[in-house]
C-alpha cells in the first residue's frame, strides 16, 4: 500500500509500505476513505517531536471502513464506517477510567502517527478499537466527520472547556488556523459576549469572521493594550486561547488576559516560552495546557448529526489520496495558499 512516511526533520516520502494486520485481539484494520493533515504533522516534520522515529507513517485523523477486527473487539465488525480518533484508549487504566484518555498509561493516548503507524495511508491498524473508533451515522459525511477526529474536540476540550468560557465572557483567540476557527465555533456554544480573533493572515481573519468572531485583528498591528481595551471594562479577556504553538503567541495571551482570567494553551510548542511570573503572580491568572482526551467526541458527533454544529468552510482544499505530497505542500504554505484544513479522499 501507499503511505506517507517520516525520515527525519524536513524529509517525508509517499511510497510503498507493508499493509497493516491484526497484532492484538483488540485491534481493527481500517481502510482509509478520507484523511487530513494536522499542524502537528508539520511540527513533527520540523523536528519538534523527537519521539517520532524514522519510517513512521504519519497522521492521526481519518474516516474509513473496518476491514478486519481482532477476536477481542465486541462492538465493531467488518464493513462498519467509522471515525478514527486521534486518541487511542485502553479503557482500563486509571486515566481512562476518568475519561482522561489522552494520558492513557495502558498503551494508548496519542500514538497514531507518533508512537505507532498512523492514518496517512491506504490502511491503518487501530489499537483498542472498541474505545477508539466511533461508528458514523449515514447522515454525517466523510468530510464533516473528519473534523471530529482532532480539531473540534481539541479546541472544545483544551481551549473552550479548559478556559471555562461562559456567557458574557470576552474571549481572545490567538491564531485563526483550523484549531482557532474550531475554537470560535465551539466557544459560541457558551454565548460569550465577544470573541476576538488575532492572526497575521488576512485570509484566516476573513475565515474567523465567517466562523463567528466579532472582531478579527491583524497581529502585526495590534498591541496587547489595544486588545485589552476591546473588553467592556478595558481590563482584558476573561479567556485567552493560544492556538498556534510559538512563544510569541503564548506570551501575547498572558498579556491580554484580565486579572482572574484564564489562559488555555492549545498549540503544540517546540521551543521554550517565557512565563512572566513577575507580572502574573499577583493577577490570579490560571494557565492550562493539555492534550485532547476526545471524551467529547460522541457529544460533538451527535450535535453534528443533528445539524447543531456548523463545520462548513473549515475544509478549503481537497485532493485524492495519491496526491498526498501536493496536499502537504499546499497545507505547509497556508500563508500563500489560504489553506485551512485539507482533505484527501480515496478514489
Describe the protein.
The structure is a single chain. This protein is of the alpha/beta class. The chain has twelve helices and 15 strands. Strands 3, 4, 5, 6, 7, 14 and 15 form a seven-stranded mixed β-sheet that branches. The protein has a six-stranded parallel β-sheet with strand order 10-9-8-11-12-13, with helices on both faces. The chain has a two-stranded antiparallel sheet with strand order 1-2. Helix 5 (178-187) links the parallel strand 8 and strand 9 (194-199). The mean pLDDT is 96.
Write the topology of this structure.
Layout: E1 2-6, E2 12-16, E3 28-36, H1 39-46, E4 62-69, E5 81-84, E6 123-126, H2 129-132, E7 133-135, H3 142-146, H4 151-161, E8 170-174, H5 178-187, E9 194-199, H6 202-211, E10 215-218, H7 224-228, E11 237-242, H8 247-256, E12 257-265, H9 277-280, E13 286-288, H10 297-305, E14 315-320, H11 324-332, H12 334-337, E15 341-345
Parallel strand pairs: 8-9, 8-11, 9-10, 11-12, 12-13, 14-15
Antiparallel strand pairs: 1-2, 3-4, 3-6, 3-15, 4-5, 5-7
Helix pairs in contact: 4-5
Q: Gist?
A:
The protein is an alpha/beta fold and 347 residues long. It contains twelve helices and 15 strands.
Describe this protein with a few key phrases.
seven-stranded mixed beta sheet; alpha/beta; 347 residues
If you compute it from the alpha carbons, what radius of gyration comes out, rounded to the nearest whole angstrom? Answer: 20 Å
- Distance separating the two termini: 14 Å
Number of strands: 15
Strand-pairing-aware structural class: alpha/beta
Instruction: Give the SSE string.
Output: EEEHEEEHEHHEHEHEHEHEHEHEHHE
Per DSSP, the total helix count is 12
Classify the helix fraction into a percent range: 25-40%
Low-confidence stretches: none
What's the overall geometry? globular
Strand coverage percent: 15-25%
Q: Give the mean pLDDT.
A: 96
The major β-sheet equals: 7 strands, mixed
Amino acid at each position: 500500500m501507499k503511505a506517507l512516511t517520516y525520515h527525519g526533520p524536513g524529509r517525508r516520502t509517499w511510497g510503498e509500505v507493508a499493509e497493516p494486520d491484526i497484532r492484538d485481539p483488540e485491534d481493527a484494520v481500517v481502510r482509509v476513505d478520507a484523511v487530513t493533515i494536522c499542524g502537528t504533522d508539520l511540527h513533527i516534520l520540523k523536528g519538534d517531536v523527537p519521539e517520532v522515529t524514522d519510517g513512521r507513517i504519519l497522521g492521526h485523523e481519518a474516516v474509513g471502513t473496518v476491514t478486519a477486527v481482532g477476536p477481542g473487539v465486541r462492538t465493531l465488525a467488518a464493513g462498519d464506517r467509522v471515525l478514527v480518533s486521534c486518541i487511542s484508549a485502553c479503557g482500563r487504566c486509571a486515566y481512562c477510567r476518568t475519561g482522561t484518555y489522552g494520558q492513557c498509561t495502558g498503551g494508548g493516548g496519542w500514538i497514531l502517527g507518533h508512537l505507532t503507524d498512523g492514518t496517512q495511508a491506504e490502511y491503518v491498524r487501530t489499537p483498542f478499537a472498541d474505545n477508539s473508533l466511533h461508528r458514523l451515522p449515514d447522515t454525517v459525511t466523510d468530510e464533516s466527520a473528519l473534523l471530529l477526529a482532532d480539531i473540534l474536540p481539541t479546541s472544545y476540550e483544551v481551549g473552550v472547556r479548559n478556559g471555562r468560557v461562559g456567557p458574557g465572557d470576552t474571549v481572545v483567540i490567538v491564531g485563526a488556523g483550523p484549531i482557532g476557527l474550531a475554537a470560535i465555533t465551539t466557544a459560541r456554544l457558551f454565548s460569550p459576549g465577544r470573541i476576538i480573533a488575532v492572526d497575521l493572515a488576512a485570509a484566516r481573519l476573513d475565515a474567523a469572521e465567517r466562523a463567528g468572531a466579532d472582531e478579527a485583528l491583524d497581529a502585526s498591528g495590534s498591541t496587547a493594550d489595544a486588545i485589552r481595551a476591546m473588553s467592556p471594562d478595558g481590563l482584558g479577556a476573561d479567556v485567552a486561547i493560544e492556538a498556534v504553538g510559538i512563544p510569541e503567541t503564548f506570551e501575547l495571551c498572558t498579556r491580554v488576559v484580565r486579572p482572574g482570567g484564564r489562559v488555555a494553551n492549545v498549540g503544540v510548542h517546540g521551543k521554550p516560552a517565557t512565563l512572566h511570573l513577575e507580572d502574573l503572580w499577583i493577577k490570579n491568572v490560571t494557565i492550562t495546557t493539555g492534550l485532547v482526551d476526545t471524551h467529547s467526541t460522541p457529544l460533538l458527533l451527535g450535535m453534528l448529526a443533528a445539524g447543531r454544529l456548523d463545520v462548513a468552510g473549515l475544509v478549503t482544499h481537497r485532493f485524492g489520496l495519491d496526491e498526498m505530497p501536493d496536499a502537504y505542500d499546499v497545507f505547509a504554505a497556508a500563508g500563500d495558499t489560504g489553506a485551512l484544513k485539507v482533505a484527501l479522499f480515496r478514489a
